[in-house]
Design brief:
Order of helices and strands: HHH
Largest sheet: none
Distance between the termini: 73 Å
Shape: rod-shaped
Amino acid sequence: MMIGLILLVIVAYYMFKSSNSGGSCCMNYQPHANTALDLLNERYARSEIDRAEYLERKQELSGQKHPISIKKG
């Protein structure tokens, strides 16, 4: 009985300590902000845009001067 109480106090202490510390492992997690290219890739993967539109927009985002050729096949 006494060992269980001691273990409970120790576990509670570490849980309280880690939740109040500013540098805990997952409390400060900030999700990756999607870039325009990430959003474009997601839209293409969901078939919201076709290949030609995807390549055109990708070219605009990357700042390329020469058009990307589209191979069908």
